[in-house]
Amino acid sequence: MPIQKLKAFLDGSGIKYVSIQHSAAYTAQEVAALAHIPGAEMAKTVMVKIDGKMAMAVVPASHQIEFDRLREAAGAKTAELANEDEFKDLFPSCDVGAMPPFGNLYDMDVYCSTALSEDVEIAFNAGSHSELIRLAFADYEQLVQPEVARFSRRVP
């Protein structure tokens, strides 16, 4: 989804947000540092397979997924990390690894870590490695309606 489509979706929904341009960065932690955003507020989109079906797991940049907990939260038999080759074609207008956490726009389930729900605002890649969007978590939750669960832990 080009950034214009994401912005049009947000504008059409009456959502207030800030778009932040930054130099190219490829990890969520790097993006957070460049944009002066705490790692706990930078949401990274991790592509996973839940019972073989592609889904998004959204966690703070400073966290990693606990797959047993994700599987339990999803009520599934399996939960595993997706391989880049399995999902890169699902997001043809996005840089690989910079997909915004809007699985609802791609007809896929979204699981969001409770750690993000504790923040007033979150920020996330907007489809490229040089722009992000920052908005209220409550607005994100209203638009995406993710399954919010405790399935991530802070990386020491």
How would you characterize this protein structure?
The protein has helices at 3-12, 28-34, 67-74, 84-87, 114-117, 137-144, and strands spanning 17-21, 42-50, 53-60, 63-65, 79-81, 110-113, 121-125, 131-136, 147-149, 152-154. By secondary structure, the protein is an alpha/beta fold. The protein has a single domain (3-154), classed as YbaK protein (Alpha-Beta Complex). The strands form 2 sheets. Strands 1, 2, 3, 5, 6, 7, 8 and 9 form an 8-stranded mixed β-sheet that branches. A two-stranded antiparallel ribbon has the order 4-10. The longest helix has 10 residues, at 3-12. The protein is globular.
Provide the descriptors you would attach to this structure in a database record:
single chain, 156 residues, two-stranded antiparallel sheet
- The CATH homology group name: YbaK/aminoacyl-tRNA synthetase-associated domain
Series of H and E elements: HEHEEEHEHEHEEHEE
Shape: globular
Approximately what portion of the residues adopt beta-strand conformation? 25-35%
Name of the CATH architecture: Alpha-Beta Complex
CATH class: Alpha Beta
Please describe the biggest sheet, giving its number of strands, its sense, and whether it closes into a barrel.
8 strands, mixed
Question: What is the name of the CATH topology?
Answer: YbaK protein
